[in-house]
Amino acid sequence: MTVKEKVAAALKDAMKSREQDRLSTLRLINAAIKDKEIALRGDGEEGTVGDAEVLAILGRMVKQRQESARAYEEGGRLELAEKELAEIKVIEGFLPRQLSGEEVDAAVAKAIAGVGATSIRDMGKVMAALKAKYTGQMDFGAVGPMVKDKLA
Questions:
Q1: For residues 50 and 130, is the Cβ–Cβ distance under 8 A?
Q2: pLDDT at 20
Q3: Burial of 69: CB neighbours in 10 Å, binned 0-12, 13-18, 19+
Q4: Which residues, other chains included, contact 126 with Cβ-Cβ below 8 Å and sequence gap of 6+?
Q5: What is the per-residue pLDDT for 56?
Q6: Can you tell me the distance from the alpha carbon of 135 to that of 146, in angstroms, rounded to the nearest whole number?
Q7: Segment 27-69, tens digit of pLDDT
Q8: Do residues 94 and 3 make contact, with C-beta atoms less than 8 angstroms apart?
Q9: How many CB atoms lie within 10 A of CB 35?
Q10: Within the chain, which residues score under 70 in pLDDT?
Q11: I want to staple 81 with a disulfide (CB 3.0 to 4.6 A). Which of 40, 69, 98, 139 is the partner?
C-alpha cells in the first residue's frame, strides 16, 4: 500500500469516526498531494506522485508546522501552537521512523563509499544518494554539514 493510499484510507476512517481535527489535517495532506500531481501534469509528466515525492511533501509540511508552532509560542498564542503540534503528530504518522544519530552516521559513511566520493566536489552525489534512499527518515539540513565535514 502506497503512502498516498494510506492517507486516503485514514481520511475515510476519520470521516466515519467524525474526528474533525484529524480529518482537517488529512484533507490538507490530500490537497498538497493533489497540488503536486496537478503541477506534474502541467509539466507534461505523468500525473501521479510516488512515495518519495509524498514523503518529501509530508516532510515539508512538518517543517512548516514546526516553524509556525515556534512562532505562535513566541507570540504567546499557545492554543494555535498546540493545534500545529497536533497536526505534526498526524502527519508524522505517515512518515517512516526517523534514524538515530548513529544510524545517520552509518548511512552517510555508506553513501560516501557507495558513490566513491573523495572530495567536497562529490557532495551532490552523496546527498542525492541519501535522498533517494532515506527521504523522510533524516533531516537533510543537518546531514549536509555532516557530509561536508567527512569529505573535507
A1: no
A2: 92
A3: buried
A4: 108, 111, 112, 115, 117, 147, 151
A5: 84
A6: 17
A7: 999 999 999 888 888 777 676 788 888 888 888 898 899 999 9
A8: yes
A9: 12
A10: 45, 47
A11: 69
Could you tell me which of 88, 91, 104 has the C-alpha nearest to residue 137?
A: 104
Dist CA 131 CA 56 (whole Å): 9
Which cell is 76 given? 504567546
Whole-angstrom Cα Rg for the chain: 18
CB-side neighbour CA atoms (13 Å) of 130 = 29
Q: Where are the alpha helices (DSSP H) in 47-139?
A: 51-74, 78-92, 101-115, 123-134
Distances (CA, A) of 57 to 21, 42, 51: 20, 18, 10
Residue 62 cell numbers, joined: 512538518
